[in-house]
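My hope is that you will study the record closing this message with an eye to the fold:
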Amino acid sequence: MFEILDKAKNLGYSAEIFYAKRSEFSINEEKQIYSRFLNEEGYGLRVFKEGKVGFAYSTRLDDNLLDSAIKSWKISEKDEANEIPKPAKIRYLNLYKKFDLHESVKEKIKELEELKEKINVATLNSTAWITEIGILSTEGMNVNEKRSGISASVSANYKDVGYVGPEIYEARSFRTPSADISELKDSIIEKVRITSERTALDFKPKSVVLTPKAVYYLVLPLLSYAISLENYYRHRSPLKEGEVLNENLKIIDNPMTEESVYSRSFDGEGQESLVNEIINVEVRKFLSNYYWSLKTKRENTASATRGYSSIPYIYPSNLEFYVNNEEEDLSEEGKVFVDEVQGVHTSNFDTGEFSIVGSVAWVVKDGKKISLKEIVITSNLKDLLKGIQKSSKRRLMIGNVNTGDLEIQGLSIV
C-alpha cells in the first residue's frame, strides 16, 4: 500500500487508501441447511489535487487502481472543499473479541433450533465475522482496527388448519458469541402467538406505540436522512437547526458503545469517533463528514461511513432514544402497538412524509394481545418526533437503534 501512495505522491497527488478485510461464516437453515465461508478484501483509493478528487476501488492493489483513480480525477469538478482528511489521534475501543467463527455459529444455530418445538419456524440464520478496517494516506494517516461480531435471526409464523399467520422476523447482533439470545427467542414466540388470531381495528386509538423494531425500520431511515448536514445544506431536510421539537426527547448518535457491532474507534475517513447530541428538546446538530464540514464551515462530527467500494457518505452509528417520561409497561387498552412496517422506501424523505403499512401490529383487549389486520399509518417525521410522549424502561438494541417502546400521539391510522 505504501508503494501506491509513494507513486501517487511522486505524481503530485495527495492520496488515501481505505482497505477492508473480512472473514465471515454463516449457516442458514430452511428446508435445507447450507453454510458459507467468505474471505474478502478490497481497497478504495482517493487522489486529491488542485481542489479535485478521483476515486477507484478494486479487490487487487496494483498500479491499475492508481491509474483508474487518476482518470476519475481528470474528469471531476473543482471544489475547494475537496481536501484530503488530516491525521487524527485515535482512542481505540475494544471492538475485537477472539473466537472461533465456525463453532460460534453452530452453537447459535443449535440454540435457535429449540424454537422448532414451540412455533412454526421458516428460517434460521447465524453469521459471525471478523473485519479489519484501515486507512493510510500520503499525509501521515495510519489507522486500523479489528472488529468482530455475531448475529442470530429467525423467521416464523402461526400455522393451523385453514389459517396461516403473517411471517415474523427477529434478528439480533452482538459483539461476542457468549451473548444470550433468550430475549430473541421469547420475543418471536410471543409475537407468533399474538398473531394466532387477527381482528380489524374498529376504534380510534388514543396513541400508537412503536416497538424498537418499528423504530428501526420506520424512524431510522427518515431521521438518518434528515440529520445529514448535506441534506440540510441542500434544503432537503424537514428539520431546522434550533427548532423546538419535544421537551421530553433526546436523541444521541453514539459510536462508542462497545457492545454494538456498529461502533467504531474512527469513522470512514480516519477521524476519531465522537458522541453527538442530535436532538435535546430542540434540533442541536446535523451529522457531517470531512467534505461537508469544510463546505459548510462547520464542526466535523466524524460521521463518515464507507465500504471499500464507495466514497465516504454521512450516516449515524448508534442512535439512542431517551424520553423523560418512562413507564415499566405501556400495555393498555386503547393503544395500537406496531412492530413491523412495510413501504418506508415510498416516503418523501425531503419532507419526512410517510404512509406505511403496519404488517404486524396488535391491540390489548381484556388483558390479551390480539393481532390486527393490516393497518396504514400516515404522518411525517417532525410530527412523529413531536408526538413522542412516553418510553418503556425496558430498552432493546435493534440494528443500530437503542430505544424502548415509544408511545406517540397524533399519528393517523386506518
